Amino acid sequence: xxxxxxxxxxxxxxxxxxxxxxxxxxxxxxxxxxxxxxxxxxxxxxxxxxxxxxxxxxxxxxxxxxxxxxxxxxxxxxxxxxxxxxxxxxxxxxxxxxxxxxxxxxxxxxxxxxxxxxxxxxxxxxxxxxxxxxxxxxxxxxxxxxxxxxxxxxxxxxxxxxxxxxxxxxxxxxxxxxxxxxxxxxxxxxxxxxxxxxxxxxxxxxxxxxxxxxxxxxxxxxxxxxxxxxxxxxxxxxxxxxxxxxxxxxxxxxxxxxxxxxxxxxxxxxxxxxxxxxxxxxxxxxxxxxxxxxxxxxxxxxxxxxxxx
Amino acid sequence: xxxxxxxxxxxxxxxxxxxxxxxxxxxxxxxxxxxxxxxxxxxxxxxxxxxxxxxxxxxxxxxxxxxxxxxxxxxxxxxxxxxxxxxxxxxxxxxxxxxxxxxxxxxxxxxxxxxxxxxxxxxxxxxxxxxxxxxxxxxxxxxxxxxxxxxxxxxxxxxxxxxxxxxxxxxxxxxxxxxxxxxxxxxxxxxxxxxxxxxxxxxxxxxxxxxxxxxxxxxxxxxxxxxxxxxxxxxxxxxxxxxxxxxxxxxxxxxxxxxxxxxxxxxxxxxxxxxxxxxxxxxxxxxxxxxxxxxxxxxxxxxxxxxxxxxxxxxxxxxxxxxxxxxxxxxxxxxxxxxxxxxxxxxxxxxxxxxxxxxxxxxxxxxxxxxxxxxxxxxxxxxxxxxxxxxxxxxxxxxxxxxxxxxxxxxxxxxxxxxx
Lengths: 309, 420
What we know:
The complex is a heterodimer of chains A (about 300) and B (about 425).
Chain A: H1 3-35, H2 41-59, H3 71-101, H4 111-131, E1 136-137, E2 146-149, E3 152-155, H5 156-178, H6 180-190, H7 192-197, H8 202-228, E4 230-231, H9 235-249, H10 255-275, H11 281-295
Antiparallel strand pairs in A: 1-4, 2-3
Helix pairs in contact in A: 1-5, 1-8, 1-9, 1-10, 2-3, 2-4, 2-8, 2-9, 3-8, 5-6, 5-8, 6-8, 9-10, 9-11, 10-11
Chain B: H1 8-29, E1 40-47, H2 54-73, E2 81-88, H3 99-111, E3 115-119, H4 124-137, E4 140-143, H5 157-160, E5 168-170, H6 175-188, E6 194-199, H7 203-218, E7 222-228, H8 237-246, E8 250-254, H9 257-270, E9 275-278, H10 285-290, E10 300-303, H11 315-325, H12 331-353, H13 359-367, E11 371-373, E12 376-378, E13 392-396, H14 407-410, E14 411-416
Parallel strand pairs in B: 1-2, 1-3, 3-4, 4-5, 6-7, 6-8, 8-9
Antiparallel strand pairs in B: 10-13, 11-12, 13-14
Helix pairs in contact in B: 2-12, 3-4, 6-7, 8-9, 12-13
């Protein structure tokens, strides 16, 4: 492999990581945009999402990587898994909001943030106790198709990962920018009181935000499983922290920022691993987090606070 | 494809039952010394029974329990009944063995005067945390699988046995042989000229990778790079792409399966043709299950003991094990079984000598062990290391006649790794 091939390959790797971080970062950023809460439960909604998708795929009779589907059955199986995972993960998000966070909403200070940490640990331990700690071999019906780009290899699952992420992010943009509900969401983000006075059902909008954020995390969970062919109760932690960094990097509360932040973190991870060493990855990423917080607290895409959503 | 899923409820029930068992055992062990009149001696067992290494830890525990049951059925050790106090040193936050929990368990066992010796730990990281505590308490442990040489090295005496006497005995040899002998195998048998070395940032992984790398220099194998994996990280394609670019003849990974399973999976995508090998961390049922075929096919692994399970003389034991537990043993089930036998033998010698049976006399007796076992005569040097130093090499080769996660049949025995 020449240096060029390696670079191309690492950019492909980085974009795939980035797409996943972006989907996850969106959940952080949307919730923060609306109620200024950092939702640590999001880490493990993602993890639970990857398990839900695994169970859906297994219930279709897919185990391990030996059963390969083609054409319509493949699209059908994956869409069914994606749809049911997003629905159920979104449901978990709503459940968390309704049972654990709404009662805390008017409690000042960090109480609700601490609550999300607690919820996060509950999800983590539920999976640990019911499934066990061993890595799960993820069902993957995708054929092993790949294209050679010089010395670099582009795989079908990378293309799938990018396109699903792009479509979901596009839909989210359209929803937030063009629909009435999206408008209500933006209004709530800017000023809850004023939005309520204008007849916006604030409680419902907050619930909707949790639903969408968690559904995206569930989608990221499915993509994670298909991409790495494994899942485990522990995956939420590292991915979640990096996605959170991505959200801060892009300016927390800023949807476009979260997407770009995710891609940047993904590229830093892959190129940093190539030119320095992977053991430095976390040092680099979290140094960036601190630098951004110190010098550009509104994120590198520098939106001011009132344009949050 | 393979094992049936146990229903959720019975799993939960299992967890609850084993928890209550541990609690009962701990309370029993905590009873005052008067209990000794009932002629019971306690042996601690410390293994990561949950977490990423659970299945392999379970295989060791099964060996220890089998030895105990068989001994008790024959009337115990010189009139004493043996009871096990089983502790788990894995935690949810670590997802695998956790040295902090291992230290807590060691303190618990030291505090319990009824405990005369311990079997464990499985992992060297736990061993490093436990050894100084056990040294202070003069309580000996016999490990069936932890291979980091530093723990017993007299160079680090102040750190790991401040009281001086050896308390960390092994029924396996150490990575001072496991890593380098695998380098020899790579150089002599596989004709490897260049290698990339990875570890999983744990005590065992870093140690064995270091010793592999050091011998590589002496064997004129070019080390093209060395990097460290974070076991909680999901993505290793970055470093694998880098390795692909450097194109070494082989990849050596020092570490256990939390990172190993993911590495095997992703290496199959990025560098499918490269020679890949690891230590006893990659000799694992969890690896077969978590990474699965075809990803694990072709990986080399070693164990720090002779390979006995194919030995005709060991077959009656294999049958007993399979009958008792309904599954096939691993080689470390034997070293676990033998670790228990070493302790029982030491207790019986103490009783015969007429000395009081306590952890001090049992430690001294373990030090003087000369016990004929399935793995040959077990005896220890002054530091607690096993006198025999055999490293066995395996390669994963799918055998469709057996379950995919059966280590006995999916790892094909290649031979003993060359010492030089």
